[in-house]
Write a structure and sequence with these properties.
The protein has helices spanning 12-28, 62-72, 74-86, 107-112, 125-141, 171-176, 197-200, 204-210, 220-226, 260-263, 276-280, 294-297, 301-311, 332-343, 348-364, 369-381, and strands at 2-7, 32-36, 93-100, 117-121, 160-163, 185-187, 230-233, 268-271. The chain has 383 residues and is an alpha/beta fold. The protein folds into two domains: 2-194 and 363-381, Glycogen Phosphorylase B (Rossmann fold), CATH 3.40.50.2000; 197-359, Glycogen Phosphorylase B (Rossmann fold, 3-Layer(aba) Sandwich), CATH 3.40.50.2000. The two termini are 13 Å apart. It holds the Pfam family UDPGT.
């Protein structure tokens, strides 16, 4: 018996993919047990697992907050690992910790138990290659890479990286990571449950909301003027300067143009949180608008956007030339243009998307590249 401990990031997009890869690993090795440790945020009451660590949420930026938040949970993680491995009812031998890409400080916990640490990288190969290149610039050329991006100093202390990506989509970037100079990379994505009802037809809850809606999600005036059917997942923006979890509007009428819901009642629906995977798997969905976090494609949003638009030709750009901290204004005309391009029937982009969808699904089934890579990782932790 062997045990892996996963320590994922707190965002639902990280938790969903972590649960899915855990399910696939245990399905591939019935002698493998997986425990997932969830950190409790001070402003959220869900997923209580590790004890809550005190972190001041006032007068702090998100980067500093999460750095302190993760650091303060190391003791709790250490105690939880110790308890789970020493339990008389659990005879599984601890063989490693799988940490989120943002939680490299948890390597210290793995070191204390003298087991290897692995990384679950929830973005793509190009993003990973970029981060590792910054590390090389700093190590070999003395360039201050930390000034370009948050330093990933400890990437090279881990034994391997599981990437939520298929080798079929980014074969060139994967080859650059397989030059013998970097640690093992396991392309195991896109992490989707192909057997679930949600993947094929959507859950009953989701279907009630969108079975009669045929496509995308955009801003109010562009949606109204497009006259295309839509589903809009509209959520409250976070208060400026505060760190909190997103929430839904009790009544979105007050933040929408007057009469918008009445004028679009026959073609659209405005909801709160949406079961994204189930919706995007629905056969009537023709396209969607995304901020380009990786789970939407399958975070470095602009890097993802550039790859999908410029390199792979799988998306249409609405706005990509903004800078951090700048005020970005996207007009209804720009959004409308994007809608028309992505919804154009029999276009080259739609054909490329269909082709890549087929390749990605094949990668996940028995004998596919991602399925085989997952097997290689299981073989590694058996050593």
């Amino acid at each position: 018996m062997r045990k892996l401990v996963f320590i994922p990031a707190r965002g639902i997009e990280h938790l969903v993919s972590t649960v899915e890869i855990a399910k696939q690993l245990t399905a591939g090795d019935h002698q493998l047990f997986i425990t997932v440790f969830i950190m409790k945020l001070p402003f959220n009451q869900l997923f209580i697992n590790l004890p809550k660590a005190h972190v001041d949420t006032r007068n702090t930026n998100p980067s500093s907050f999460f750095k302190t938040f993760i650091e303060n949970h190391k003791t709790h993680a250490r105690d939880a690992v110790s308890e789970s491995t020493q339990s008389e009812s659990n005879q599984a031998r601890l063989v490693g910790l799988v940490i989120n890409m943002f939680y490299t400080t948890m390597i210290d916990v793995a070191d204390e138990f003298r087991v290897p640490s692995y990384m679950f990288f929830t973005s793509n190969f190009r993003c990973l290659a970029f981060l590792l290149h910054l590390r090389t610039l700093q190590d070999e050329n003395g360039i201050d890479a930390a000034s370009l991006m948050d330093s990933k100093d400890r990437f090279r202390e881990i034994k391997g990286i599981l990437v939520n990506m298929s080798s079929k989509l980014e074969s060139h970037a994967l080859q650059s990571l397989s030059d013998g100079k970097t640690l093992p990379v396991y392309p195991v994505g896109p992490l989707l449950n192909l057997e679930s009802d949600d993947f094929h037809v959507g859950s009953n809850m989701a279907r009630q909301k969108y079975d009669d809606q045929l496509s995308l999600s955009v801003r109010a005036y562009a949606l109204e003027h497009s006259r295309l059917r839509f589903l809009w997942s509209l959520r409250k923006p976070l208060p400026k300067g505060e760190i909190a979890m997103p929430s839904d509007y009790a009544d979105p009428t007050g933040v929408l143009p007057e009469g918008f819901l009445d004028r679009t009642a026959e073609i659209g629906r405005v909801i709160g949180w949406a079961p994204q995977v189930a919706i995007l798997a629905h056969p009537t969905i023709g396209g969607f608008v995304s901020h380009c976090g990786w789970n939407s494609m399958l975070e470095k949003q602009q890097l993802n956007t550039f790859e999908l638009v410029k390199e792979l030709g799988l998306a249409v750009e609405i706005k990509m030339d903004y800078r951090k901290g700048s005020e970005v204004v996207v007009s209804a005309e720009e959004i409308g243009r994007g809608i028309r391009e992505v919804m154009e029937k029999d276009s080259d982009i739609r054909e490329r998307v269909k082709e890549m969808s087929v390749k990605s699904k094949k990668a996940l089934v028995d004998g596919g590249s991602s399925h085989s890579s997952l097997g290689c990782f299981i073989d590694q932790i058996q050593l």
